[in-house]
Amino acid sequence: MTNKANQYSPVCRAVKYALASGLALGLYSTSALAQEAAAEEQKVEKIAVVGTRAAPRSIADSPVPVDIIGGDELMKSGSSDMLNMLTTTIPSLNVQTTPISDAATLIRPVNLRGLSSDSTLVLLNGKRRHRASVITFLGGGLNDGAQGPDISVIPGIALKQVEVLRDGAAAQYGSDAIAGVINFVLKDNADGGSIEVKQGEFFAGDGTSTEIAANIGMPLTDNGFFNVSMQYKNVDPTSRSVQRADAAALAAQGNPFIAPITQVWGSPKIKDDITLFANAGLDLGNDREAYIFGNYSERDVTGGFYYRNPHTRGGVFSNDGGQTLEVIDTAGLGNCSNVSLFDGTRKLSHNEITARVNALPANCFTFFSMFPGGFTPNFGGNITDTSLTAGTKGEFKSGFAQGVFYDFSASVGRNESAFNIINTVNASLGPDTPTDFEAGKYIQLEKNFTADFIKYVNMGLHNDVAVAGGLQWTEETFEIVAGEVASWEIGPYVSQLTNGSNGFPGFQPDDAGVNTRRNYAAYVDVEAEFTDNLLMAAALRFEDYDSFGNTTNYKITGQYRLNDDWALRGSHSTGFRAPTVGQANVRNVRTAIFEGELQDVALLPPTHPVSLLKGGKELTPEESRSYTLGLVYSGSGFFFTADWFRIEVDDRISQSTEFDVSQTDRDVLRAAGVRGVESLSKVTLLTNDFDTVTRGLDLVANYSTSILDGRSTFSLAYNWTDTTVTRFTDVTGDFKVSRLEKDLPNHRATLTWNQQCKRNSNHTLRCGC
Prior knowledge:
Elements: H1 10-20, E1 24-28, H2 30-42, E2 47-48, E3 57-58, E4 66-70, H3 71-75, H4 82-87, E5 93-95, E6 110-112, E7 120-124, E8 127-128, E9 159-165, H5 170-173, E10 180-186, E11 193-200, E12 209-219, E13 224-235, H6 245-252, E14 269-285, E15 288-304, E16 324-325, E17 328-329, E18 339-340, E19 342-343, E20 346-347, H7 350-358, E21 364-365, E22 378-395, E23 405-422, E24 436-457, E25 465-481, H8 485-488, E26 513-529, E27 534-545, E28 549-561, E29 566-577, H9 581-585, E30 588-594, E31 597-604, H10 609-613, E32 622-635, E33 638-655, E34 659-660, H11 663-671, E35 680-707, E36 710-727, H12 734-742, E37 747-759, E38 765-766
Parallel strand pairs: 7-10, 31-35
Antiparallel strand pairs: 1-11, 2-3, 4-9, 5-6, 7-8, 9-10, 11-12, 12-13, 13-14, 14-15, 15-22, 16-18, 17-21, 19-20, 22-23, 23-24, 24-25, 25-26, 26-27, 27-28, 28-29, 29-32, 30-31, 32-33, 33-35, 34-35, 35-36, 36-37, 37-38
Helix pairs in contact: 1-2
Domain TonB-dependent receptor-like beta-barrel: 377-753
Keywords: Cell outer membrane, Membrane, Receptor, Signal, TonB box, Transmembrane, Transmembrane beta strand, Transport
Membrane topology: Multi-pass membrane protein
């Protein structure tokens, strides 16, 4: 038998990697490339673990749609961001870039099948991955109030493959799996390794990114492996901005302190992004195995905010819309008055305004003298992510449980976001304000203990019936850490000027605290092949939360093979997504623009006294019903799937519209112990306030053939998704409904051509790549 693996040159494969990666240089050991080439050429079908608790199945035999992206495919990508890598392969996956969006700039939300980022469950080696600590307050409508996981910390070089289950799976895996499941499988090689260097930038000349990544596999005694991956990355910011009209007008009036671009609209700067992933396994003998894996990741992210006009910004420069500059009396002498910016109806020039400010008595202060060109805060944070999972699995060999396969595991995951804001002021402190602030932290901590069992039972069918069951215990904690005093302090001039670090006030001691929730779950999952052509599966899951009670969900799936090439498949399931502890307890103040003016908006817990006045109430789980119907063709080098889906979600959790703050509201806030309410213009809250129906179609096609003296593989993936809001109230608002229905693209498609090069018997290369 001819060894086809030797026909493909490792050298040409390295060249192909570099070409597919744009400005990328890949350095790989010859043995590792040869092994990859052999594995890729010899494998006939891709095997999925996610979506079934029975023996892994090929994606053609799966009763639900599953995408598998191999680690080598990810390495060919020119992108250095895991989110971008996945979106180019999975058309129903969208990632939004949200400039000037508070913490959403730091951790980008992911959307599968048109649902929010926390409606997709993320697994690592089949185990639940913890959420990010960031709650997206400005998420483009779809992700407002969402708290999803941070996928960007996972480097492509660490992955063996990525499995994407495009189907509701809450009955199998629990909360968050309404849209589907993404399972990241880490490499488990005991030898070999690779080094990868990538550098690139946008055609505009910005956003330069540099990435160094490495992977190495080592033996762990004679019966195990220890695989380690590292990535270090820096990404410069981008700017797709033009000068603001008001800033350009100030420059035209002779103000020399106006920056060329006062408000940057683009991706943030990412500095010292370092990630370390490790995966280890050890064969204990007698069909037993121990495993452990985890990660440490850290990065600094900095992005821009809205420009503060030195003539009009309320609460800092002016309180009358730019007619006068607000002046404070720092000594209480009573000899200070506001500086008019007009001479009758004529607007004064910059030099004339400066002369009037300089003529003020020494005890009279205006922020125009500190920032004559205005200022633009820069918001950022340090994101630290850690996790550790350990467990053991095997088969009971004796006793009443003989023949039962088990998997016991424990995991802990922690994500910390430490916020900072620079080039801004706490205006209520007057001239004593610092300009850089540590605004506080969000910390998400999750602990899981799981026990999973499966037994294959002979019931006289075509194959043994797989009967699985298990238990899970989870503890979720969300903590708010107060910022430094100056970031939230109410200074002596609060009656005239706003308090707190302008743009993102620090978390007050009253906001700080730890909130915890626990829940346990039990499930049963049965999968049976009734005949050679008919596969059926059913799952039932019960979960009980100590906050809102319990929920029970089910799933039924099936596949019927019409012949050797064609098959029908479908599923129906119910699901749920529990509100996170962070969503139920988070507080935040942000600056947003309304009708051209910047105003402070407070996000309050849904059970806060003011929230109750606005219609707030305790959050309850989202509930879903999912339907899918698919067609599969596999034969003659061609693979094709078409899957229609419909997802109905009731009582979706999102951020409400912004409500005006009345004097009565301020009085209630003061009575509740909230400080600094004088600067608040609007309040918002998280609420279960609307229902949606999402429909769509996924098409995936792959064809392999021999052309150009090599092996060519053509891949096409297409998605159509449409979301309709079927119920909402004034708390949601028409504008948010429009964004929910229209902000994501209805159609997405990707076309890929992968060319492998062939080596002749005389070792010369013949390749059309």
